Amino acid sequence: MAQANSQNAQKKTITDKFIEFSLNYIPDSMVFVLGLTVFVFVLALIFTDSTPWGLVEDYAKGFWELLSFSMQMCLMMISGFVIANAKPIRKGIVRLIDWPKTRGGTIALFALITGVISWLHWGVGLMATIIMGKEIAIRKRGQGFHYAFIVAMAYTSMNIMANGISQAAPLLSATPGNFMEKIMGGIVPISQTSLSPYMMTFLVLELLALPVVYYLLMPKKEKAVEISDELYKEFTAEPEKVDASKKLTPAERWERSRVLNTLIALLILIWFGDHVITEGVSKINLNTINFALFGLGLLFHDSPHSYIESVKEGATTVYGVIIQFPLYAGIFGLITFSGLADEITELFISIATPGTYPWIVFIYTGIMDFFVPSAGSKFVIEAPYLVPAAQHLGVPVSQVINAYGTGAQMANLIQPFWAIAYLAAFRLRFQEILPFTFMLWLFVFIAGSLWFLIFPFGW
């Protein structure tokens, strides 16, 4: 018996050992953010002139900084869920999931489709990966898909490919009149950042590599722990149906009528189309995207009743955002208002050369985003010293933006902040997906490092 146990222990893969370690020692995301708060507080005490009470003031000042952003994220997540949960969209997703007959084929299809969607817009990609991930867990049950691996695949696919045209920093830098225009010496067109041949090539290579990496990381069929019976029943429960023979009241007829949904949806979408045509793509922001998603959600649902029921279901994915965003905003306050961000940045810039600066920005962002995982709002604070440093070293500003965005996406792979929606939707803990997301973090770290060190000035 002892010999058999020894042999079983020897058969454990690195991933198996990582899963075991993660389940035993990595806390829940709520514990993670509270622990990070203490850690950053201590760092600020050591490396800045702030007093303990001054840091408390900084924390309180930052605590409410992300309220608008929190609401925007909640609306985006719920609206995206509502769209993906609509009957015509879900039928399309089901057909796609049913098409491949093998595990490898399913992984390849999932990675490529969700990767492209996430590149177009990370918010839609976030909900698309959740919906498709759930359908794989449900419809491929019995084929050996490890449930936590599916969730990790969904989370990493969105994050790795989200460094696309919806990234805040490139869009902001390409907008005339932005706060950095004078320092940059003009705007930086999106053709030099997200849509540049340099970044497009890198992202295409990442996209093509994802199915291979996922396949190598996928637990063997005999070791897979599939979706539980409890979750399977919950996710496949049929919504309550209205008795067709029942005579509806006037109020119930309006609740189940398509008229109002379609009318409001068309008004919203016509406005959005006119806005894009007259103002240009550069004017698209979270508010206009949320407006369009709201309209699409109404259009794809056949009644107000169907829409609101879907909203109720989608709302279960945002409870973590509501509670944890203020806590991360407090960390944001500690780092920003205490001067800790300046101290860390100066440390990296002091060892930079023109050939290593983009890579240093890539690494720096990966570190800072781990503590303040909001690349858009963080760029407003960091750009005023990252950009002048690049200009001093003779590095194109576009390369700073490219390295900045790539580093931010890398950090998210081992940071539970953006995983909150996935953990809520799939009913998992962060430590259950971390072994897989860590390996993807390692992949992006190596790929990004090679890319920015070999081609530091772009093409």
Automatic annotation (TrEMBL):
Transmembrane segments: 30-51, 106-132, 144-162, 198-217, 259-278, 321-341, 347-372, 433-454
Keyword Membrane: yes
InterPro entries: SCFA_transpt_AtoE
Protein name: Short-chain fatty acid transporter
Example of a GO cellular component annotation carried by this entry: plasma membrane
PANTHER family: SHORT-CHAIN FATTY ACID TRANSPORTER-RELATED
Keywords (A to Z) from UniProt: Membrane, Transmembrane, Transmembrane helix
Organism: Megasphaera stantonii
